[in-house]
Amino acid sequence: MNRFYAFAFFFLFGLKVCAVYFTSFSLYGDEAQYWLWSQNLDIGYFSKPPLIAWFLSGHIRLFGDSFFSLKMFPLLIYFFILLGIYRFCLQINLSKNSSIICSFSFLLVPAATVSSFIISTDLLLLLFWVLAMTKLLEIRKGGHFINFTLLGVFLGLAFLAKYAAIYFLLSFLILILTDKKILTSLKSSFFGWLTFVLVFVLILLPNIYWNINNDWVTITHTSDNANLENLNLNFGEPLGFLLSQIFMLGPVLFLSFFYMFKSFGLDFENKFLLIFSLPIIIIVLVESFLVRANANWAAPALVSLFVLFFRLVIEKKRVLIAINFVANYVFAIFLFVSILISSNYKVFDRIRGVDLFAKEVLEKTGNKDLVISDRIIFSNISYEVREQPKNIYMPHNSGEIITNHFQMMSRLSQTQEDDFYLIGNDADIKYLLRENETRLLKEFSVPFNSSNLKLYEVIFK
User: Reduced to 3 states, what is the DSSP secondary structure of residue 134?
Assistant: First the structure.
């Protein structure tokens, strides 16, 4: 059976590689943004911590920054996630055989299938989240001093991947309140836990320093996503969020778990898995009701939730695990074949036609500077014309609210003197001191942007 899972996995891996190589799709805007960050390494960025840029930079140094190379990055990270989940499963007392099946099965849940094609901060968050949970369990069993250090390293890196890692601290607090063994460890291994705290804080210090020097813009941006001032009570959002979580985990496994729920027992392992999943789901569910919530906001919870479901189902009815594997496998094949043939499904609109648009813009603008108002378009164009000697700026009037990283680092100066081309609206550059004339060259209707893009020629008088 393990050979079957391994063969099926590697066949799917080959299909994914072919899909990436032959597709005509382009990078999504956020992916291009992370590529841009990787070209200008820093200890912090406007909307995210810096780890994704650091890891991408290392990947690019080794393998280049072609579309194919960048799309291999998620697969490389998922390989380490697979190993991490295997070790985690062993720590919660699954057999080696079941741990192997669990780790392979996790890589086939729809959430992992989709995200294996996308460069995202969730990848690194999941990796270090799993490693941190594993070290925590080892410490509970009487782990060595090095485990406290590694727990600090892994949790610190999880925070540098995405601030959603704060959920780990909440779950850890709940674990302390509900598990005597962890509480005893806190008392008996004081210096070990002190080392954990010091290492954790030390890893976060550079990013804290960056935020202090930049008015805490990353923290502010993150809190704005959940701003209760934007209160908008909506019963449809929580339902949509729950359905998205069920789909992301795999409907077959979800239904199988509740079919056998009567056999569910609350031993320590299941309690641990619930503590590191349920509070996160509840928080994001409430947030979806009060404001809004994206499906991936509860991503760390999916690891524990999947293992919780898997643990019960494989013990009681192993055949359902195989059925779940096949169902998820069919979805994965459908997705990768769709990418391979560059399908016209609407879901792919945001990654279709970017390269052709960039090529036409480059032909019309020549070597003159380019000014772009939209963050996504800025990122896409920057990546597509990366081999061309072209300056690209973003308009932003000093003193106004900053809404993205490029308004900080690539701002169009109000004393601009050279003519340039603008993708945006002429109102975006009214703050320039010198008088100028704008001439509309072309209006583009493109699938990757919800509104038409206007290309202007800006000439100073």
Answer: helix
